[in-house]
Amino acid sequence: MIHLECRKSVLGFATASKSPCAEPQYSPHSSAGRRRQQEIVRYTMSTVSIESLPQDRLPAASSQPKQQRVVIVGGGFAGIAAAQALRKSDVEIILMDRRNHHIFQPLLYQVATAVLAPSEIATSIRQLEAKQKNLSVVLAEVTGINLRMRTIEAIYPGLGIRKIEFDYLVIATGMRPSYFGHDEFAAHAPGLKSLNDAETIRTKILGAFELAESTEDETERARQMTFVLVGAGPTGVELAASIAHMVSVTLRNNFRRIDPAKSRIVLVDGGDRILPSFAETLSRKVVRRLERLGVEVRTGLKVEKVDEQGVVASGERITSATVLWTAGVTASPVVKMLGTTTDRAGRALIGPFMDIPEAPNVFVAGDATSMTQDGYPVPGVAQAAIQQGRFAGRLIVRRVEGRSDGRPFRYRSRGNMAVVGKNFAILEAGRMRTSGFVTWMVWATLHVLALPLLQNRFRVQIQWIWSYLSGQRSSRLIAEAPRSVEIPKQKSAS
Fold first, then answer.
1. Residues 187, 243: one domain?
2. Considering only Cβ atoms within 10 Å of each terminal Cβ, which end of the chain, N or C, has fewer?
3. What predicted TM-score, i.e. pTM, was given to this entire model?
């Protein structure tokens, strides 16, 4: 900036030689003087225009510290719990998921068997922004993580790859089906982890009865009416029982040439008993209940092959047009991007504060973690994921505020439940083990209350009451396939 006195002297073309702004003397009428005058006018106008700008438009260094950013990858139970735990913290939260909805996983099998519609167990993640001002929801899929630079790369639909910086990172990407090194099985045996999976299974089940009704070949009819479920954990048991109730009640008298009640439902598992995470006494009760519903329980069979004709288990061919995979799961590939140690299922081996050794401000929560407590693994259930996500969020709050980490994470089990068709469920909580109708009522009440939104609770409750009284299911829809035959155009009359 030019000093005011200097500016006046320059404009007057006459300065004393002792002045700090002294210039060579020019005649204002000479060519050199005119050029000098033009240069001074341009310089002076530029200086005046800069000085005349409002101060709020000038860049100024901020005296406030930069707000720290927490990136949460995954909009499941753990991810949402972590975001909600940060609600009152002075941080910027980015919740990223490759799909725009949160799924209530415990009831996903009911979408697969037409009891519920997808919208009744799912809700938009973006609705969280209305309730939480420091949260932004991003629809994108993570493709890379750089722990040293504290950045992640993600593909935005229609926009390409972008980099996002973070101060804290929470990975809560959940699980996907594992075929134990036989990924070729996936083409013939869909798993159940997403709404797309549920709708695919629903189409296969309902479509099998349509094909059985239409075919003239008795062998093919028997193949279409045989359903094989590989894996006898809670999902396999619940799915098998729901299919059994569908064929005996819901589809009764719906066909002219077939009797759905004569369908064959086979539940296969390589272990020595079903539901290994429950007490053996409860496992035996479930076997008896399934057999009463018409389900064949086959344990000790190792599946060796899955193709369009069915499965081969321990050398035995079971012919089936519908094979459903409920056996194993593996962690999302995002976990591998961390470069941390994982178990055989690809889950991150985390410490007592749920962070990884390579980066203390990077946490893994939910089904993507492998954690032991008192010598036993923390189960991959919704209540564990919620507790882990909430712990990670609260720990970040403590670190942002400069407080100590406090106590390490400890899972508090509220019991495990599984439902086996209508009017029967099992519960194991500590030493308490119950089963039967009352337990089924407790299961139904807890699951309705746990649904994410009031509208979900209301709609599910109404649908369950209707299904209980009538035996009908509201979502018996087969996805429409592309047209396989070109419809000829009608010629207009001349």
1. yes
2. C
3. 0.82
